[in-house]
Specification:
Layout (H helix, E strand, L loop, with lengths): L2 E6 L5 H14 L4 E6 L3 H7 L5 H10 L1 E4 L13 H8 L4 E7 L12 E7 L3 E10 L4 E7 L2 H17 L4 E6 L5 H15 L6 E6 H8 L8 E4 L1 H14 L9 E3 L4 E4 L17 H13 L3 H15 L15 H10 L4
Parallel strand pairs: 1-2, 1-3, 3-12, 5-10, 8-9, 8-10
Antiparallel strand pairs: 4-5, 4-11, 6-7, 11-12
Helix pairs in contact: 1-9, 1-11, 5-6, 9-10, 10-11
Bound molecules: 1,4-dihydronicotinamide adenine dinucleotide and magnesium ion.
The site of magnesium ion (MG) has 2 residues, from helix 8.
């Protein structure tokens, strides 16, 4: 029986890559029925709602969503729809794997990093003020003991289920002493529940340097919201770029799957975007929905197509358009 999933096309390259996923899912006979909703500037113009209530109802009912990127105005305008959705549904765990793709050459090999980013607190808590009299801009980074314990537990649970050896806590506790200590104390407490898994910690500056020299030595990383946002783009660059790195926003009730990348306005409408990152997010979604067989079938077809350079999209040195790449995947699906 098909399961209903809320589908958000989003902005920029969103509709192009979402179409690719729909076509691949249909050809693979994935047991999914899409319920289309949208959010952002488009729905604000059309319906007068930035995040329509029908979208929130659909996600609350279906519990699973697949989302294209949504544009956020820079330095002005509305608060990021992406962040609002994460906070509304308390999607505390942002899971972002950065792994080499078999057959796709890249600057490094053996990269297999699973990043856990706290998704609801920190500098993205929304506590921003401008004092016009003094011309002071304040942004408050608020984290909680329970929020830290929750994201660190997610990282350890993942490590334990997936036979991972080590969880590394990423922080800036030498300067941000109180926040850093809160995160590290949470780590010390939660790690006791997982005696088989090593834990260590690293200051973010040092991590960034080591990631671009020896990324293969890192395993599971866990960190606060802003650090996680930045590190995940860095990690994407280690394994072929934003076109290939998936993500999941997971809460206790609802989960929304989306690529790490944004709406890519520089290439939107040109038909050249790489749908791999969103397709890998959709494959993660199928695993989450316990649909392993079809998830593996789509993944095999994806990797087969990616293993031949010409088949790939331009960001990976290939010649295919989004449409051609999609068709290659469909024709490589095993019956
Ligand atoms: P971006 O991730 O959209 O693009 C960065 C660079 O990567 C661009 O050169 C782009 O062409 C390339 N790129 C990204 N995805 C690609 C793909 N699938 N295939 C090929 N190339 C790809 O970051 P940018 O330009 O900083 O942000 C654009 C907009 O997206 C902003 O409004 C931002 O707020 C929003 N955004 C939304 C996110 C979300 O919906 N979760 C996440 C990140 C940014
Ligand atoms: Mg980001």
């Amino acid at each position: 029986m098909n399961k209903k999933v809320t589908l958000i096309a989003g902005d920029g390259i969103g509709p192009e890559i979402v179409t690719a996923i729909r076509e691949i899912f249909e050809a693979a006979k994935a047991p999914v029925e899409w319920e289309e909703e949208n959010a952002g500037q488009t729905t604000l113009d059309e319906k007068g709602e930035l995040i329509p209530s029908s979208l929130l109802e659909s996600l609350a009912k279906n519990k699973v969503g697949l989302k294209g990127p949504i544009t956020t105005p820079v330095g002005k305008g509305f608060k990021s729809v992406n962040i609002q959705l994460r906070q509304h549904f308390d999607l505390h765990t942002n899971l972002r794997p950065a792994q080499n793709i078999p057959g796709v050459e890249s600057r490094f090999s053996g990269v297999d990093i699973i990043l856990f980013r706290e998704n609801t607190e920190g500098l993205y808590a929304g506590l921003e003020f401008y004092d016009d009299r003094l011309d002071i801009a304040d942004t408050i980074s608020r984290i909680t003991k329970s929020g830290c314990e929750r994201i660190i537990r997610s990282a350890f649970e993942f490590a334990s289920k997936n036979n991972r050896k080590k969880v590394t806590i990423v922080h800036k506790a030498n300067v941000l002493k109180i926040a850093g200590a809160t995160l590290l104390k949470a780590g010390a407490k939660i790690s006791k529940e997982f005696p088989g898994i090593q834990m260590d910690d690293i200051i973010i500056d040092n991590l960034c340097m080591q990631l671009v020299i020896r990324p293969e030595k890192f395993d599971v990383l866990v960190t606060t919201n802003l650090f996680g946002d930045i590190i995940s783009d860095l990690c994407a660059g280690l394994v072929g770029g934003l076109g290939v790195v998936p993500g999941a926003n997971i809460g206790d009730e609802v989960a929304i799957f989306e690529a790490v990348h944004g709406s890519a306005p520089d290439i939107a409408g040109k038909g050249i975007a790489n749908p791999t990152a969103l397709l890998k997010s959709a494959i993660m979604m199928l695993h989450y929905m316990q649909e392993k067989v079809v998830a593996d079938k789509i993944e095999r077809a994806l990797y087969k197509v990616l293993s031949e350079k010409d088949n790939r999209t331009g960001d990976l040195g290939g010649k295919s358009t989004t449409q051609e790449f999609t068709q290659h995947i469909i024709s490589n699906l095993e019956q």
